[in-house]
Amino acid sequence: MLNLVTNADARFFNEQIRVLGEHGVRGETLSPPGMHRAYDESVTQRSPSDYLRFFPTVFRNSLGEYDLIHANYGLTAPMALAQPRLPVVLSLWGSDLLGEYGWLSKRCARHCDAVIVMSDEMAGELDCDCHVIPHGINLTRFAPMSKSDARNEVGWRQDAKHVLFPYPPTRDVKDFPRAERVVAAAAERIEGTVELQSVFGVPHEEMANYYNAADVLLLPSKSEGSPNSVKEAMACNLPVVTTDVGDVRDRLSAVSPSRVCVSDAELVAGLVDVLSDPRRSNGRENVRDISLGRMGERIRGVYETVL
């Protein structure tokens, strides 16, 4: 299999490759030339010419001994479809369908042999058949542990109430200014110290400590597909307060305490509810169907259908 991806360092993509390897799927990965922006908004994004230069690279490699091309993220789909020999599986991650270049992803999806999306909301944006397969979670790594021990691990105050925002403040779609606004409003209605913790750039295996150290996950995003942070928080029994994006309403329908919100007032109320009486959720029992192993089985099944 030939994988195309805009960000070969994306941790969920690498988890996908690892799990597929355990299911007997082997392949190579190619990325467009140029700089990929990760956490620093000042880093220049790839230019159109970078993507144009990617076309001949993909074409040459498609002549090798591969069975199919898996285009991960919509901006890689044109290159995958430009080669004439291999069937194409396209995975859409969220912003590539719901964001600025959604029109391109929609056009390309019609011509792919199979399309994978992260949520039913994303499926509803397409006028072609698709498979809904959310990114899986490592349920061994992300598991409940003592809040006190976790706070010692990450160096957070034991006597404060911590709101976790597991993204860089510079990522516009995650809306950090809104997070600051609603946390400040909630703090006025709660006794004690409330701290908003923006956590990013730490090794993925350490993130479980932060989920377990926090009192609540706050996700005020403008749009999402199937946010991994919500599923990882659920696996650690961390309550979630989120905007109504992606698949979170379905994901959290049986999870308590947690809140899916539309307005700032609802986000504030959700935070006040959890922080006034800090407690763990029943999230883990509602996340077992999206293990990494199950994700790998389902993606391999798509490959088999295409081939």
Question: What does the model show?
Answer:
Strand 10, helix 11 (248-251) and strand 11 form a beta-alpha-beta unit. The protein has 307 residues and is of the alpha/beta class. Helix content is 38%, strand content 14%. Mean pLDDT is 93; it is low at 39-44. The protein has 13 helices and eleven strands. The strands form two sheets. It has a six-stranded parallel sheet with strand order 2-1-3-4-5-6, sandwiched between helices.
Q: How do you describe this structure in short?
A:
The chain contains 13 helices and 11 strands.
Low-confidence stretches: 39-44
Number of E strands: 11
Strand-and-helix sequence, N→C?
Answer: EHEHEHEHHEHEHEHEHEHEHEHH
Task: Characterize the largest beta sheet: strand count, sense, and whether it forms a barrel.
Answer: 6 strands, parallel
- Binned, the helix content reads 25-40%
Average pLDDT, rounded to a whole number, is 93
N→C terminal distance:
11 Å
State which percent range the strand residues make up.
5-15%
- What is the overall number of helices? 13
Outline: elongated
- How do the strands line up in the largest sheet? 2-1-3-4-5-6
Structural class, by secondary structure, is: alpha/beta
Radius of gyration: 20 Å
